[in-house]
């Protein structure tokens, strides 16, 4: 493909994968206003974020087999249509319980973009370029936390929180047009993939048996849950505890998102000198150390608003090295099963993200500790999993992907050591 086509595809895939992050981040500044209008508490509104993450986790397991069976685009169109309808439902809801339910349905539709984007990267680019392409795609995704809360804050202040969901519906409608006109179809439909529960579960099991996939699924996924604790807890921390406005919160969120964008930019040049595994190990060690500082300093009362923001910035900088490298290492052994592998990867990340988000809500005590405590715990557990799992990969080589010989390209796992 030409350079222009390559850039166009990466931008479209990045935008497609941005649907769910945008849906998460854009309505965060509206939490207090939503709670007031629906006569409920902010921790109840936090559960609408949890339900969204649960919907993404479940939905990705559904779309994985569908994308392998029917090709990439048909399931994608159906999912995004469901998303648009559910977004309109969110805008016109009149109770917290209805919002929680509609957010779940919205996620079921929107997660089609996340699975398809990962699978299409595996379809359209050589194995050796996956980490670099995912870094560029993650860069596009990382722009959403800078834009979405800021836009959401101003929309809430000017028009009301309901308009946030109407804007999301319009954005996804435009994305569908881009997919139709500019995005290649990727791997064609495969009628050999059965949609019956038995074969589907067997296919997922064959993917999970791969020790390389399982290690980086668990380590990368648990590590990636830390930002969801921050996302869930930050509206309450900054707008209720530190009394910032919706607009100020949007700018704080944008500044912190710059941490992920900066480290994502560094990932590509760093891959010229270090392996993906080395960068992932460093990222989790870094986040564990910063997480400990966050917890200890919070308990001892060391931090004001500004010092807390700086430490969270340093913590989130590790995500730009975690996500693309753990994804590349997870997907490398697969070609034919890329859709199912992507679904499992996304399902686990969002599922554990939902657990982290719910934990912040359940532990809510009007302090910063629940948020930073869950963030630190995620990083620590992920580092332990990676340390143990790397030994298993060395002892037990990855299993071959079925029917891999049918493909033109060679799809060996990404080397763990240079």
Automatic annotation (TrEMBL):
It is a multi-pass membrane protein. Gene3D superfamilies: Multidrug resistance protein D. One of its GO terms (molecular function) is sodium:proton antiporter activity. Keywords: Cell membrane, Membrane, Transmembrane, Transmembrane helix, Transport. It is found in: Cell membrane. One of its GO terms (cellular component) is plasma membrane. InterPro entries: Efflux_drug-R_Bcr/CmlA, MFS, MFS_dom, MFS_trans_sf. It comes from the Bacteria. GO terms for biological process: xenobiotic detoxification by transmembrane export across the plasma membrane. Residues 9-391 form the Major facilitator superfamily (MFS) profile domain. The chain crosses the membrane at residues 7-24, 44-63, 75-94, 100-121, 133-155, 161-183, 213-231, 251-271, 283-303, 309-331, 343-363, 369-389. Pfam families: MFS_1 (PF07690). Belongs to the major facilitator superfamily. Bcr/CmlA family. This is Bcr/CflA family drug resistance efflux transporter. It comes from Adhaeribacter arboris. The lineage of its organism: Bacteria, Pseudomonadati, Bacteroidota, Cytophagia, Cytophagales.
């Amino acid at each position: 493909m030409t350079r222009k086509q390559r850039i166009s595809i990466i931008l479209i895939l990045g935008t497609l994968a941005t649907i769910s992050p945008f849906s998460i981040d854009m309505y965060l500044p509206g939490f207090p206003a939503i709670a007031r209008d629906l006569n409920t508490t902010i921790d109840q509104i936090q559960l609408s974020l949890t339900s969204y993450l649960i919907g993404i986790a479940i939905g990705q397991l559904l779309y994985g087999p569908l994308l392998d069976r029917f090709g990439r685009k048909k399931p994608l169109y159906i999912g995004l249509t469901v998303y648009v309808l559910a977004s309109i439902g969110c805008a016109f809801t009149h109770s917290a319980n209805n919002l929680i339910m509609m957010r779940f349905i919205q996620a079921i539709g929107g997660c089609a973009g996340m699975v398809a984007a990962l699978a299409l990267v595996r379809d359209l680019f050589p194995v050796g370029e996956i980490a670099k392409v995912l870094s560029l795609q993650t860069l596009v995704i990382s722009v959403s936390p800078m834009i979405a809360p800021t836009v959401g804050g101003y929309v809430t202040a000017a028009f009301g929180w309901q308009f946030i969901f109407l804007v999301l519906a319009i954005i996804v409608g435009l994305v569908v047009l881009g997919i139709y006109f500019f995005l290649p179809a990727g791997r064609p439909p495969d009628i050999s993939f059965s949609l019956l529960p038995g074969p589907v579960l067997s296919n997922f099991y064959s993917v999970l048996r791969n020790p390389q996939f399982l290690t980086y699924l668990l380590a990368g996924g648990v590590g990636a849950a830390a930002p969801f604790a921050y996302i869930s807890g930050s509206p309450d921390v900054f707008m209720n505890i530190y009394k910032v406005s919706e607009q100020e919160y949007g700018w704080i969120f944008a500044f912190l998102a710059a941490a992920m964008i900066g480290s994502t930019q560094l990932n590509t040049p760093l891959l010229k000198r270090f392996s993906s595994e080395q960068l992932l190990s460093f990222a989790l060690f870094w986040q564990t150390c910063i997480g400990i500082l966050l917890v200890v300093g919070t308990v001892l009362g060391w931090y004001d608003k500004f010092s807390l923001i700086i430490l969270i910035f340093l913590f989130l900088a590790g995500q730009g090295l975690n996500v693309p490298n753990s994804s590349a290492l997870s997907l490398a052994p697969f070609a034919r099963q890329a859709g199912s592998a992507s679904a499992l990867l996304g399902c686990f990340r969002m599922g554990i993200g939902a657990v982290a988000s719910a934990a912040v809500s359940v532990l809510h005590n009007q302090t910063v500790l629940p948020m930073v405590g869950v963030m630190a715990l995620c990083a620590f557990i992920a580092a332990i999993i990676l340390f143990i799992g790397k030994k298993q990969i060395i002892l037990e080589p990855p299993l071959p992907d079925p029917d891999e010989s049918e493909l033109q390209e060679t799809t060996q796992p990404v080397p763990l050591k240079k």
